């Protein structure tokens, strides 16, 4: 039995993961299609999987490895950071995915009681990482109504007015759940504001390769900037759990403190997964971008399906895997009811905006289904939205 009184406030006061709630909806229904989870439909490169198969009997695979990651992968990533991201003064720590990278950083850079900044709509796991580490003073800034870019004027005021200055500012580029990218000039401005205020800037670049319509992803570097990356989506490696932190080499003590956290959570990322990451990286970024190009069709199909919501209702989609769709005003306080209704009545799932600090919206993912299935899911979504608008949530 037991009682709530025996459980930690840090856990009790953390939001329930929206993905777990949505997975519950999926499990409870027959023949449901998901536009909810942020995943890609492809598997890792075949050549990389074949090579990894050969490694399973190698003794080092079953031992612990260096906390910061296997040297071959770290070396390859330093090269990649130079060539692709123009990051020249960064060191690498490999983690069990980008989410663990973020938790490592929060534990290394922030104390309970600090204030931090993020922008709505925000990435729900980042919000929860703050909550569960005692950082309850989470200042949530607005995004531009039209573009969904983080509002840098608000940030400038907030960094000036908040005493002591917020410890950390975080953005996702391109965004989850917004599906918008942060243009280079804006990212530089955010970085300069953080540097001047003495705040860390943590940029989550999980979707660095997921850029459309000729737009280019860029990174910023500095002694106050930490970048996070992931193999999950790019190489279809969600279940292998590999991400990494690119942190400023010259900041004294940072590497040592990061190692303390790492040694107490995964010790090291799975060794076989790190080898798969290395072999996948050897395929080159084109392996990823060739697949990302194909997602444009899914995006078009889903944009069409969202058209019943009316002109201007859908934003994002210029990066990452997401469209951000505004529901009619009367659903501003019950977007999760709409999600449940869509699941039960129309067998299609999305993520409610309320889980991202921006109620009254839906996040639609266009990465998880092959085109044929995406069409089928889009058809359900379209019918559902038409009914929602004409008759409401009829049972
Ligand atoms: C912005 C962002 N960061 C991190 C993650 C988690 O990535 P990983 O699988 O590398 O932990 C996701 C996954 O959806 C994401 O969207």
UniProtKB/TrEMBL annotation:
InterPro entries: Aminotransferase_I/II_large, AspAT/PAT-like, NHTrfase_class1_PyrdxlP-BS, PyrdxlP-dep_Trfase, PyrdxlP-dep_Trfase_major. It comes from the Eukaryota. One of its GO terms (biological process) is amino acid metabolic process. Residues 31-381 form the Aminotransferase class I/classII large domain. Its cofactor is pyridoxal 5'-phosphate. PROSITE patterns: AA_TRANSFER_CLASS_1. Pfam families: Aminotran_1_2. One of its GO terms (molecular function) is transaminase activity. Keywords: Aminotransferase, Pyridoxal phosphate, Transferase. Belongs to the class-I pyridoxal-phosphate-dependent aminotransferase family. This is Aminotransferase class I/classII large domain-containing protein. The lineage of its organism: Eukaryota, Viridiplantae, Streptophyta, Embryophyta, Tracheophyta.
């Amino acid at each position: 039995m037991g009682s709530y009184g025996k459980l930690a406030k840090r856990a009790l006061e953390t939001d329930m993961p929206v993905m777990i709630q949505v997975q519950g909806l999926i499990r409870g229904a027959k023949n449901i299609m998901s536009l909810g989870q942020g995943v890609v439909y492809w598997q890792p490169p075949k050549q990389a999987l074949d090579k990894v198969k050969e490694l399973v009997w190698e003794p080092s695979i079953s031992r612990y490895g260096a906390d910061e990651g296997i040297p071959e992968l770290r070396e390859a990533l330093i090269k990649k950071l130079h060539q692709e991201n123009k990051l020249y003064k960064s060191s690498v720590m490999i983690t069990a995915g980008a989410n663990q990278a973020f938790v490592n950083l929060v534990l290394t850079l922030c104390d309970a009681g600090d204030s931090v900044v993020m922008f709505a709509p925000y990435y729900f796991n980042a919000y929860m990482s703050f909550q569960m580490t005692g950082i309850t003073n989470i200042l949530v800034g607005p995004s531009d109504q039209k573009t969904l870019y983080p509002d840098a004027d608000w940030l400038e005021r907030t960094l000036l007015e908040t005493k002591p200055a917020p410890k950390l500012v975080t953005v996702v580029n391109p965004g989850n759940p917004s599906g918008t990218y942060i243009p280079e000039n804006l990212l530089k401005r955010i970085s300069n504001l953080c540097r001047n205020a003495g705040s860390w800037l943590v940029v989550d670049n999980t979707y660095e390769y997921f850029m459309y319509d000729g737009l280019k992803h860029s990174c910023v570097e500095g002694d106050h900037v930490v970048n996070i990356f992931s193999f999950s989506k790019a190489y279809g490696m969600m279940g292998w759990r590999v991400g990494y932190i690119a942190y400023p080499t010259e900041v004294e003590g940072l590497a040592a403190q990061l190692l303390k956290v790492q040694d107490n959570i995964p010790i090291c990322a799975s060794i076989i997964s790190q080898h798969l990451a290395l072999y996948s990286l050897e395929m080159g970024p084109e392996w990823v971008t060739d697949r990302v190009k194909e997602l444009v069709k899914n995006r078009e199909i889903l944009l069409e399906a969202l058209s019943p919501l009316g002109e201007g209702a859908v934003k994002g989609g210029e990066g990452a895997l997401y469209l951000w769709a505004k529901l009619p005003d009367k659903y501003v306080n019950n977007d999760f009811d709409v999600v449940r209704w869509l699941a039960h009545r129309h067998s299609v799932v999305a993520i409610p905006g309320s889980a991202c600090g921006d109620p009254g919206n839906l996040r639609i993912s266009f990465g998880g289904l092959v085109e044929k299935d995406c069409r089928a899911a889009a058809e359900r979504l379209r019918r559902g939205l038409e009914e929602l608008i004409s008759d409401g949530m009829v049972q």
